[in-house]
Amino acid sequence: MSALRFFIASVGHRTFRYPWLTPPIGIMSLAAVVRERFGAEVRLINQRLHNISNDALVKEVLAFAPDIIALSAFTPNKFDLIDVCAKLKMVLPEVPILVGGPHAAAVGSEILRETAADIAVPSEGESALEQIINQFLSDRSWDKIPGIFWRDDSGDIIENPGQIELIHDLDSLPYPAYDLADLPAYWRLQFLPPGTYSSYMTLMSSRGCPYGCKWCHSIFGRRYRAHSAERVIEEILYYNNKYGVSDFEFQDDIFNMDHSRVIEFCELVHKHNLKLKISFPNGLRTDILEEAEIDALISAGTHFSAFALETGSPRLQREMGKRLDIGRFLHNVEYAANRGIFSVGFIMLGFPTETASEMRQTIDVTCSSALHFASFFNVTPFPNTDIYDMAMKTHREKILSYDYSSYDFTSSRFNISAEPDEVVWKLQREANRRFYSPKRIYRIVRDVPTPYQLLLYAPQFFTRMVKRSFRRNQAK
Ligand code: B12
Ligand code: SF4
């Protein structure tokens, strides 16, 4: 019997304003599982990498002639997903199309109404995918798989009862199929931490988060699960030997949930005499860090981290479920930044019920911090989050008319706060003006690991300046 042919792609485009990119660990992990468990022939494409058109992606699928197609997408890429699924159904009507990833997790079974896909997995994918392929190879009784959504022969959408099975022992997973990713192509593009245009790998060493931020995605559930420190080091050693890479970025939502795992990981880095560059572009939970832990991370090679304050208002910390200790945040950022971690802050302005004075409080706290960079994002509600439901009560029309396809972190303008739009935009401008003082710019230039990389931010800076002067002219 010939091997199962499995095509998997991440759908969506890289934009001028949001050029960052990292290897897609989710689909690489699924690809590795399908190859290991079924001996399948796998083709993997990240559409965002080469920025190919939807038609070109469909041609790639046709050329591969798969038995099963699996597509992953973020919510802003849903229109590409709709287009690609429709085109694939026209040319390959018999081949099952599976969809998953953040958008499926966000909208649930709605994704089967939006697209022509046959099956949707609204959560972690490895276990469900294995069950789906087993069914594909037997009698295709999709109703036996808990928690998935599928379309029956009459076109009705069926929501299977039960929960998608999550993997408790993450170490049982094979390494993501890095060999299927065009690594040199990633290394030529801009990735998140400073160090761009060099070889690096992306790791995800844990899944799930027990905190309850009301804006957060729910892909992996609230139960924290992590690879053992030994397994993370094994993987690093493997990549180090195979690809000569010593620069690793962790995309974990909360790498430092388990203090002893962090310390053990750092000790193993030394034990194996590894000379690493480590970064946390998705952030570390700042208030639970301890000084000894920061020291250990630095001595293991950490040079860059994001730290998410989100809001400087204690009321909103409580109401929005993040419950960050702001005092400890400030202390730990200062400790880390003074010892060589280039520190980037994630800030959100415009929470439901947030007032101008609370936004000012956030700006004050951020300006008093030792952060090098701070991004003042507008709170944007994503479907299937608590904040989305809150905003539907207060700003229903705005939400229903919002075009998520044009969303990106750098340009999003969304206001669901208690203040009018102009007040929020003004405060956002004020935040940037106050934060990037001459003293801060001096610290950035002094501490940035590779100063020439500041030029990489020029396109975003230039776009903002043009937009700002355009708005000013309009206001005159
Ligand atoms: C790294 C990262 C990125 C990387 C790219 C990652 C990639 N995959 O290509 C970069 C920096 C480029 C990025 C960009 C953006 N990101 Co991002 N990103 C992340 C982050 C931190 C980790 C992603 C990851 O690797 N996860 C680990 C893997 C194992 O999980 P996974 O990819 O979701 O895959 C699993 C399941 O979803 C499922 N699955 C996935 N696909 C499929 C397909 C099938 C068929 C099946 C069965 C299952 C399945 O199985 C996988 C394994 O269990 C997540 C947060 C998070 N914790 O996931 C946010 C996240 C995915 N990003 C998010 C967003 C919003 C964005 C942006 C749209 C922001 C922006 N534009 O300003 C951009 C998109 C860029 C663009 N131009 O389109 C949101 C998505 C929310 C949503 N509803 O879409 C998330 C969830 C963060 C959040 N805010 O809550 N991101
Ligand atoms: S701490 Fe981070 S990952 Fe956890 S719920 Fe809050 S935003 Fe989500």
Please describe what this structure looks like:
With 476 residues, the protein is of the alpha/beta class. The chain has 2 domains: 5-150, Cobalamin-binding domain (Rossmann fold, 3-Layer(aba) Sandwich), CATH 3.40.50.280; 190-465, pyruvate-formate lyase- activating enzyme (Alpha-Beta Horseshoe), CATH 3.80.30.20. It is built from 19 helices and 15 strands. It has helices at 25-38, 47-50, 54-64, 78-91, 102-107, 110-114, 126-137, 183-187, 229-243, 259-271, 291-299, 314-319, 326-338, 356-368, 386-394, 396-400, 421-435, 438-447, 458-475; strands at 5-10, 41-46, 68-72, 97-100, 119-121, 149-151, 157-159, 201-203, 206-207, 225-226, 247-250, 277-284, 302-310, 342-349, 373-378. It has a 7-stranded mixed beta sheet, sandwiched between helices. A 6-stranded parallel beta sheet has the order 8-11-12-13-14-15. The protein has a two-stranded antiparallel ribbon with strand order 9-10. α1 (25-38) crosses α7, α10 packs parallel to α11 (291-299) and α14 runs parallel beside α17 (421-435). The model has no long low-confidence stretch (mean pLDDT 92). Residues 10, 12, 14-15, 18, 20-22, 24-27, 29-30, 70-72, 74-77, 98-103, 106, 121, 124-126, 128-129, 192, 204, 216-217, 219, 251, 253, 282, 382, 408-409 line the site of cobalamin.
